[in-house]
Amino acid sequence: MYKSLVLFLESKNIEETKIKTICSFFKLKKTNRNQILVDYNEVCQHYYFVNKGCLRIFTINKEGLENSRYFAFEGNFGTALPSFIDQKPALEYLQAIEKSELLVITRHDFYFLVHSIPEFSAIYREILELGFINAQQRIYGFQGLDALEKVSWTIKNNPKLLLRVSNKMAASYLGMSPSTLSRMKSKL
């Protein structure tokens, strides 16, 4: 149950006793396909590590169109981070888009580990930094790219995305229509 998390923590050069302590705070949660974990306007109380499956963070605009902004696959963390941090209602949804097996930690326990285990604090800082970099690359990098370049960038930087999620979800992430995404994929 903890194998993926242990491998992740070992890759960060954390000693075995601290790994056991960290893992003891995580509980297994199995989800159904398309299960909402954090609803819009709900305050997020948990952080998730993906053992198996995929999480998606998305919003829905006034016209009812979804806008995917993040996907977490196996071996990655995911949550509705702004709500998790400031304990205000989420302005987004967190969804398991596949039948998933997650390791879940409460906000209280997560911050206990951040404050008591320096290596876990470093992981949190890394998650925040990588999230910022990815958001910046997606926002500013995509501004100057045409549709084909966006798809090529995604294949290079996040190949699981186009293999594992629906065209509709991937297209919303890339800022294009599903039909445009299909045409661009056929050109590659």
From TrEMBL:
Name all Cyclic nucleotide-binding domain ranges.
10-114
Q: Which Gene3D superfamilies match?
A: Jelly Rolls
Q: Which Pfam families match?
A: cNMP_binding (PF00027)
Name this polypeptide is given: Crp/Fnr family transcriptional regulator
